[in-house]
Amino acid sequence: MRKIGILGGTFNPPHIGHLIIANEVLDALSLDEVRFMPNHTPPHKEKTGDVSDLDRLTMLEQALDGHPSFFIEDIELERKGTSYTYDTIKLLMERESDVEYYFIIGADMIEYLPKWHRIEELAELIQFVGVKRPGYKDETEYPIIMVDVPQMFISSSMIRRKLRTGKTVKYLIPDPVVRYIKENDLYES
Known about the structure:
Helix content is 38%, strand content 18%. By secondary structure, the protein is of the alpha/beta class. The longest helix is centred in the N-terminal third of the chain and has 13 residues.
């Protein structure tokens, strides 16, 4: 049975924090691959700005380019509507029955787990993998494997603020993503 990690998010834009988390979990749990799954409409936050799904997908492709075990899972973009993890995992399991899924979440989402749609059923279907995030607790009543990753306070919203105010994002996001953002005038003030 293949072991596949799923890292969901808006990836608006994708940054080195996403890449580090995925790489550390891939290695720590000896996963076969990690799939980055951009959501269409996350249930816990509003969609940010006017960056299209295609732009987010293209930036993600550029951020992952060259890593042999990183892939994009675009099932939630195809489905449209609110992206509930339970519904997505059910579809993925129907599509690939020979896979054990490891759903990677930050400590901010660990705290939020009790509010997830159909969380009890979801916890029976997948293995949650948690990573610490500054300012959040990692305690939960749900079964979760914690993976130690380098902690840094970096977020897509912080990067968007920096871009809007003309501040540097060097080393926070991969250079091809920076070029794409500049060429397409994304996140301008």
